[in-house]
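The protein record reproduced below.
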Amino acid sequence: MKAIFNHSTIRIEDLKYESLYRATFYADGFFETMCAENGCIPLWSYHVKRLFQAGKAAGLQGLNEIIESIPVYVESLSSELSGKPVMRCKLTIWREGMGLYSPESDQTNFLLSASILENPTIREINHVGFCEKVFNTWHFLSKFKQIGAQSYVIAAREMKSRSLDDIIILDAQGNISEALYSNIFWSKDDQLFTPALETGCVEGTMRNYLIDKLPVQTNEVCCPREELLHADAIFFSNALGICHLNKLEGSTFIKAQWVEDFLPFII
């Protein structure tokens, strides 16, 4: 697979050990998963904001030049995929150089890759449960997508072992935090809710977009799992689209179809 590494087109399998050192041994970086349509990224401004915030929090330098170049590189990768209209792009940034916990450099490496997006923008799922092995905890980097994602790997293995379509992660206090790949929204009595960042969830780009664009106010809350079981409708969101949840632990839900009218994609 071809990709862009530090402004050069490469094959991913040709990446060298030294380039990946701090990503591999210290998980010293972040990533963004992005949907691109016809070479453009509908949520780009939200990705940019989160990238700059993550870079500042970690003390990474040189992000301006990287971020300015990404839209051009996305168009280039679209051409490599024979101009496929919808792509899943992944941008990973990490600290360059060697060192131990104390790095030798604060300059930033980046890798941009793309693949054809096969899944539809809107889905429906039925088999979802609450995660029993992993709990989220807030810290000052928890709202970013960190490349050290072992807790999500453990949650994904639990999801697979239980034959679930997705899994809901709680925080250490038992509050709803997020789904495996997505943020969670639910409606009750004409009010809309989503977990607060204090639950340790990722501050998703689609989450922020929907909070900005939906015609109803979204209440950011810390609520126990029982709140979901009494919801009218539940949907998950991430940068690639939304997913309606039909059933959860014996409770059934209506479909919040009105949300689809506000998605930033061509459906």
Observations:
- The longest helix spans residues 63-80.
- The radius of gyration is 19 Å.
- The CA atoms of residues 22 and 28 lie 6 Å apart.
- The mean pLDDT is 95.
